[in-house]
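Sequence in, structure out.
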Amino acid sequence: MYNEMAMMPKSSEHALIRKARRGDGAAIEGLIRAHQEALYAFLLRMSGRPETAEDIVQEAFVRVLKNLDRFDSRFRFSTWLFTIAKRLYVNSIQKRRPAYDSETVGALEGGHDSPGLDAAQSETIANVRRIVDFALKHLGPQQREIILLFHQQNWPITEIALYLDMPEGTVKSHLHRARRRMKVAIQSSGKMNRHAQEAWS
C-alpha cells in the first residue's frame, strides 16, 4: 500500500538509509519497494502518461541512490525523493506537453480493485476514477500536486508545506480552492455529474 515508508518511524527509516549507503542490497530494495508504487501513482496522475511516469520513477531512483550521501536526515526520505522526481517531471513537460489520458490512468490503477467485487461495484469504482481524472484536468499543476499529495499520498499539511516551501495556510487555501474547482467542473458536466450522483448515492 502507498506510504509504507511514511508510517515507518523516522529512526527506522534513517537506519535503512544508512545501510543502503553502505551498499546493502536488501536495504536498497526496501527503499525502492516502499516508495515505488506511491511515486508512480503520483506521477501518473500528474502527467497522464504511463511511459512518462515509469521513466521518471526509474530516473528518480537512480539519482537518489547515487546521491544517498547527500540526504539530509532532518527530512523524510519521501520528501527528498518526490522533490527530485518533480524536477525531472518539470523538465519532461518542458520538452513535451503531457496528453492526459484518463482512460489509461484509470485502467492502470485498476489493479487495486478487490477480485471479489461484482460488476456493479467495479463499474462504480471505474466511474469514480473517471470523475477524479476529469476534475484533476481542471486544476493547475500546483493545485493538482497538492490535491494528490494530500488525498492520494496522505501527506500531512506540514509535510506538503515543507516540500513545496510555502506556508501551511497557503497549502490549506490551495486545497480548498482546488476542491471547489473540481466540484464546479464535475457539476458543469452533465455526464460527470450523473456519474457522481450515481457513485455517491
